[in-house]
Design brief:
Structural class: alpha+beta
Strand content: 15-25%
Helix content: 10-25%
Largest sheet: 4 strands, mixed
Radius of gyration: 15 Å
Mean pLDDT: 74
Number of strands: 6
Number of domains: 1
C-alpha cells in the first residue's frame, strides 16, 4: 500500500495498492498513462515522483518508478525527467535506477529553474 498526501495539502491521504491494480482504480500521478514527452525518440516523461519524507528509504520510490517504466507503451524507447540540480538524494536515486544527466531538449528551455534533465534508455 502506498500513501501520499493529496495535492490540496489537506490532512487526509490517498492510498494506492500497487499489488492489485484494478480497472478504474486510482493510479499515482506520475505520468500514467499521459502523453509522450516531445520529440524523437518516443519517450515517456516521468513527472513529480514523490514519497512522503516519513516513508522514505522503504523502496516505495523504486516501486513507483518501476511501475511507471513497466506501464509505458511498447513504442517508448527512453524515459526522461527533470529533478533538482542540488537534490543529491534524487540524483543518487535516479542514477541507481539507470538514469544519466543529459542536455535538456530545446523545447525545455527555461522549463524548470534549478533543474537538471535525466534520461534512461529502455532495455
Amino acid at each position: 500500500m502506498i500513501c501520499s498526501p493529496p495535492a490540496t495539502g489537506l490532512l487526509t491521504s490517498r492510498a494506492y495498492d500497487l499489488r492489485n491494480p484494478s480497472p478504474g482504480h486510482a493510479q499515482p500521478a506520475a505520468s500514467l498513462p499521459g502523453p509522450h514527452a516531445p520529440g524523437p525518440p518516443p519517450q515517456r516523461h516521468v513527472g513529480r515522483l514523490m514519497v512522503a519524507p516519513d516513508l522514505a528509504g522503504r523502496g516505495i520510490g523504486s516501486a513507483l518508478l518501476g511501475l511507471i517504466e513497466r506501464a509505458a507503451p511498447s513504442d517508448i524507447e527512453r524515459y526522461v525527467l527533470f529533478t533538482g540540480a542540488r537534490s543529491e538524494r534524487n540524483l543518487r536515486f535516479y542514477n541507481r535506477a539507470g538514469y544519466t544527466l543529459a542536455p535538456p531538449p530545446p523545447s525545455a528551455a527555461g522549463h524548470i529553474a534549478g533543474a537538471v534533465f535525466m534520461t534512461k534508455q529502455r532495455p
